[in-house]
Amino acid sequence: MKLVLSIVHSDDARPLIDALMQGGYRATMISTTGGFLREGNATILVGTDDANVPDVLRIIRESCHTRTQYVNPLPPVMESGEVYMPTPVEVQMGGATVFVLEVTQFERF
Ligand code: 2BA
User: If you placed Cys at 4, which of 8, 23, 46, 98 could pair as Cys (CB 3.0 to 4.6 Å)?
Assistant: First the structure.
């Protein structure tokens, strides 16, 4: 058994959960925050048999989209009187960051 852990854009989370449910998979969504952008994203957990992993990855790939965002880099250390003009930097976000983990034991009580 595997645990497919995917970090996705918040806007893709609901359509992804819907598609996973339609595919007959169980899923859990956790609200998370990216360490770089410090913006909300979503982490989706799917526990499933090894044979289903390619299908789960297909659903994730089809449900999640790449986005371009602009972020302001942290201001540099400056002398007093200096003026910092931030130049937004382009960052490509997603579609999804996926980890496939081996499950050593699974129980439902
Ligand atoms: P964030 O950490 O907020 O990162 C958002 C996007 O910013 C990343 O998109 C990437 O394009 C860019 N980015 C991240 N760190 C960077 C850095 N040090 N320098 C320049 N650009 C950087 P994605 O790669 O698609 O990642 C989307 C979200 O997935 C991340 O949000 C984070 O929450 C998660 N993630 C990505 N890689 C991860 C990893 N190896 N371990 C844990 N979480 C990860």
Answer: 46
CA-nearest residue for atom 14, ligand 1, is 36
- pLDDT, one tens digit per residue, over 80-96 is 888 888 888 898 888 99
What's the number of domains the chain is made of? Answer: 1
Range of the domain at 55: 2-72+87-102
Lookup result for tokens 């659903």: 59
Q: What is the pLDDT of residues 61-75, one digit of tens each?
A: 999 999 998 888 777
Instruction: Please give all residues whose beta carbon lies within 6 A of any atom in ligand 1, as ranges.
Output: 7, 34-37, 41, 91-94, 97
Q: What is the CATH number of the domain that holds 15?
A: 3.30.70.120
